[in-house]
Inverse folding.
């Protein structure tokens, strides 16, 4: 067991070796000389990644720990970048091996000057090897996933790229750059049902198509059963011929696209429930989306008013439809009656009956919300 002072000497040795002015240029030159596939890369590229890996490894050995998620995220980006540059994974691993060998060789040469024993150096190397094994595994995974995605047809490749974008986090920034989605004003996520005709603001692109010419950069593909787009410009909100609808959320940074997708889906669901058409931003249906997102509260509301449902008996669906339509028509009895093809007095009577059995006053602000929510819940039941 080594004392804290012993380990402090080990850490000082590593920091000294890594900090030597000629080490990084020597390592980079060795990598570019010995690994042919890496030699074609800019020296600054190789130097930057090598410096970052050295710094991360030094911190890990000093703290006697494995790699952090932030370090692994950087390694994933490196694996993706090298795959996109056409550098085989074997060459990437060879380059890392060349760098490791140079660094530890110099550490052995300097160890005696720092009073570091061979046993202590071996322990540090074993710690480094554990760290390096996890790093290699993440590097290989990221590289292979990128190669698989590149081998797919264009539509599938864009879908794979969209999945990386919509996962959010640090990897999404690299995916955004790869897709050419580098708008300074943020990104928008747009969702629609397959077969819908999207607004002209998306460029009328089919899944798998990229923006071109003077159209705003966008990526559009079928993902998880929904037509999904990530745009660099906010889409318009005008109604679309055919009554199609899309939910949209944004602007957001690449790291926030996972949350933006959830909001866009909520916007789509709420817009469909309200009978909206065109592109509907989540901010335009925020209250409705919040209501529809709480299935637990919907169940609680229905359970509480189960006696009222029983009291309405066979007329329950007709009453619920009348009250819901009346509220959606902004409490305009004439408009609701016309929508349901009934006499205005029928609407009045059913609203009154609903109020009597439930105790909810739909003429008030929050009473109207509860009434609409309850009616929708009743109508959704088999």
């Amino acid at each position: 067991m080594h004392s804290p002072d012993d380990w402090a000497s080990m850490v000082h040795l590593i920091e000294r070796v890594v900090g030597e002015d000629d080490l990084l240029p020597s390592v980079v030159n060795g990598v570019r000389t010995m690994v042919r596939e890496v030699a074609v890369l800019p020296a600054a590229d190789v130097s930057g990644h090598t410096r970052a890996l050295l710094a991360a490894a030094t911190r890990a050995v000093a703290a006697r720990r494995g790699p952090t998620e932030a370090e692994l995220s950087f390694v994933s980006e490196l694996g993706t970048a090298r795959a996109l540059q056409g550098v085989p994974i074997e060459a990437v691993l060879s380059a890392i091996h060349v760098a490791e060998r140079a660094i530890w060789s110099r550490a052995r040469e300097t160890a005696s000057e720092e009073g570091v024993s061979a046993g202590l150096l071996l322990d540090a190397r074993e710690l480094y090897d554990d760290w390096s094994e996890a790093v290699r595994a993440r590097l290989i995974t990221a590289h292979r996933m990128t190669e698989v995605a590149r081998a797919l047809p264009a539509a599938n490749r864009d879908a794979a790229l969209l999945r990386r974008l919509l996962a959010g986090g640090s990897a999404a920034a690299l995916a955004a750059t790869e897709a050419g989605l580098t708008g300074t004003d943020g990104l928008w996520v747009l969702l629609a049902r397959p077969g819908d005709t999207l607004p002209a603001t998306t460029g009328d692109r089919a899944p798998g198509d990229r923006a071109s010419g003077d159209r705003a950069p966008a990526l559009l593909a079928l993902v998880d059963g929904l037509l999904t787009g990530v745009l660099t410009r906010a889409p318009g909100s005008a109604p679309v011929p055919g009554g199609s609808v899309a939910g949209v959320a944004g602007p957001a940074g690449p790291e926030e696209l996972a949350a933006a997708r959830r909001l866009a889906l909520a916007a789509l669901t709420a817009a469909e429930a309200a009978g909206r058409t065109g592109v509907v931003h989540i901010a335009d249906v925020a209250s409705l989306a919040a209501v529809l997102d709480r299935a637990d509260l919907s169940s609680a509301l229905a359970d509480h008013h189960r006696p009222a449902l029983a009291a309405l008996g066979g007329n329950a669906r007709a009453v619920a439809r009348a009250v819901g339509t009346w509220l959606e028509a902004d409490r305009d009895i004439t408009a609701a009656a016309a929508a349901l093809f009934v006499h205005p007095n029928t609407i009045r009577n059913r609203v009154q009956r609903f109020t009597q059995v439930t105790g909810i006053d739909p003429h008030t602000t929050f009473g109207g919300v509860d009434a609409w929510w309850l009616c929708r819940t009743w109508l959704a039941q088999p």
